């Protein structure tokens, strides 16, 4: 008789492991990758955990192997090991769970699409390959214009911290559409951060990998218009039938369906039909599912079935890489300092960054002048002035310098003259208050100072605001001018 104590042990051991893991990875990753895991048993210091799919196993092995190993050893001692039980896709005939031994080496199947995923299975002592669950036989062929734009490929989608999870998941989906844990795949972000690009890249890559699959990209608005037309023309059934034949359905900007009850109803049915048949659904939105207003609860709960991943603002290096890739693709030579200048100053979104780049190129062609920093400065100033919400460090410096009648070079010099120090500290303070730049970036912009100097400046300004009335007047007037 197996005593119940052991049952409690494995749950307890896994619970302890989870506690350590939780402290070591971002909350979103923990929720996605560790919450769905079930501990199964603990025998002879081997802890068995059950994961929902082969893909899940791959991902854990790819991204969390080191952490998992360390944690298990911490809990079970040096000879503690881990085994997985993988739940196979339900469409597979052989659906009994397999036990596989955790491989010692780091796998690399996901980021490298050319590596296939044969899993070495230890099944009752024998070794066997899991049949590839990702081949769907008997595809119906229909002619569909996928509405994909070649430019929006993975090749042109620069990877950065801001998009790593979403991009990797997208890549994995394009390898195995419909059968990863990411169905639906919900991508959300503010405007201009790459939702459309990434969702299209997945579509393009699926077409490359599986030319027979029917991929359709469309905006939620297009979907809604088609539906309204079908109601008017009384061919609603054709409309629904058409969508039910799609293998990979990409619906962009789902938030535009807010309040459109009938369209949501029909989308709900299409969603269910596709999802039940392991067809891939990709949705983009300007908000996370929990924050989407005006969308039916039953749809929202389905959006949470798969993976919801957000795209963040790109950091400086990523912005530089994006600009370089674009100029390279367009065959344009752009001096490095211009690229860096743009990347420093335009931080709000990638569309604006590209817009500034295009304006500079257009200006230089129009005036037959070479692209240089001066031109870039003028363009950026224009963009910044047009867009009151986005204020750059350079713009702040310019306003502060004009106000105190000093030059930007003086502001950024090492001068300890009182009025210059004061202007510099105010410029640093406003940069911290009004831009998203870090203390380090602000320091770099203010004549290569370090982050501690910026921090000190901010504190000084805060103190002076409370004690020095004239200083407070300067501050208030400058705020008005900067925000003009
Ligand atoms: P969204 O749909 O979130 O509003 P888009 O996908 O339209 O944003 O992206 C805006 C612009 O930025 C597009 O031209 C796109 O190609 C570009 N872009 C976005 N993310 C990246 C990236 N990671 N690498 C390169 N270009 C990008
Ligand atoms: Mg978009």
Q: Please indicate the count of domains.
A: 4
Let me know the average pLDDT: 83
CATH superfamily of the largest domain: P-loop containing nucleotide triphosphate hydrolases
In percent terms, what proportion of residues is strand? 5-15%
Q: What is the helix tally?
A: 20
Q: What is the C-level CATH assignment of the largest domain? A: Alpha Beta
Named at the architecture level, the CATH assignment of the largest domain is 3-Layer(aba) Sandwich
Heteromolecules bound: adenosine-5'-diphosphate, magnesium ion
Radius of gyration: 28 Å
Return the structural class. alpha/beta
Distance between the termini: 79 Å
CATH level 3 topology of the largest domain: Rossmann fold
- Numbering strands along the chain, what is their spatial order in the largest sheet? 8-9-10-7-11
Unreliable stretches: 1-5, 89-95, 103-142
Question: What is the 3D form?
Answer: globular
């Amino acid at each position: 008789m197996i005593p119940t104590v052991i049952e409690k042990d494995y749950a307890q051991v896994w619970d302890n492991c989870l506690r350590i893991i939780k402290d070591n990875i971002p909350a979103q990753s923990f929720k996605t990758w560790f919450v769905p895991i079930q501990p199964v048993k603990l025998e002879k210091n081997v802890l068995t955990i059950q994961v929902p799919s082969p893909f899940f196993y791959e991902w854990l092995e790819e991204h969390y192997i080191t952490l998992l190993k360390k944690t298990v050893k911490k809990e079970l001692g040096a000879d503690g090991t881990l085994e997985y039980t993988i739940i196979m896709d339900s469409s597979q005939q052989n659906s009994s769970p397999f036990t596989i031994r955790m491989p010692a080496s780091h796998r690399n199947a996901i980021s490298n699409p050319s590596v296939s995923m044969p899993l070495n299975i230890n099944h009752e002592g024998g070794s066997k390959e899991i049949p590839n669950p990702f081949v769907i036989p008997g595809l119906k062929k229909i002619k569909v214009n996928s509405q994909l734009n070649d430019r929006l490929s993975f090749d042109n989608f620069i990877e950065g911290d801001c998009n790593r999870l979403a991009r990797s998941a997208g890549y994995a989906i394009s390898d195995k559409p419909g059968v990863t844990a990411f169905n639906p795949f919900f991508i959300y972000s503010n405007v201009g951060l790459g939702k459309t690009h990434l969702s299209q890249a997945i579509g393009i890559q699926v077409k490359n990998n599986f030319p027979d699959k029917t991929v359709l990209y469309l905006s939620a608005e297009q979907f809604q218009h088609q539906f309204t037309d079908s109601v008017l023309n009384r061919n609603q059934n054709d409309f629904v039938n058409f969508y039910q034949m799609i293998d990979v359905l990409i619906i962009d900007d789902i938030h535009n369906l807010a309040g459109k009850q009938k369209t949501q109803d029909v989308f709900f049915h299409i969603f269910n039909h596709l999802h039940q048949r392991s067809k891939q659904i990709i949705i983009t939105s300007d908000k996370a599912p929990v924050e989407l207003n005006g969308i039916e609860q039953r749809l929202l709960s389905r959006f949470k079935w798969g993976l919801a991943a957000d795209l963040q603002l790109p950091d400086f290096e990523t912005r530089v890489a994006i600009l370089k890739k674009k100029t390279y693709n367009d065959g344009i030579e752009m001096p490095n300092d211009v690229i860096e200048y743009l990347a420093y100053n335009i931080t709000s979104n990638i569309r604006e960054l590209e817009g500034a780049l295009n304006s500079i190129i257009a200006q230089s062609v129009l005036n037959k002048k070479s692209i240089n920093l001066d031109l870039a400065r003028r363009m950026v100033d224009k963009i910044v002035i047009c867009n009151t919400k986005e204020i750059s460090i350079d713009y702040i410096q310019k306003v502060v310098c004009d106000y105190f009648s000093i030059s930007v070079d003086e502001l950024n010099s090492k001068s300890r003259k009182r009025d210059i120090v004061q202007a510099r500290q105010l410029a640093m303070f406003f940069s911290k208050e009004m831009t998203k730049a870090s203390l380090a970036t602000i320091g770099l912009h203010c004549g290569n100072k370090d982050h501690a100097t910026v921090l000190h400046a901010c504190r000084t300004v805060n103190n002076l605001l409370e004690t020095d009335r004239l200083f407070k007047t300067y501050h208030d007037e400058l705020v008005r001018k900067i925000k003009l």
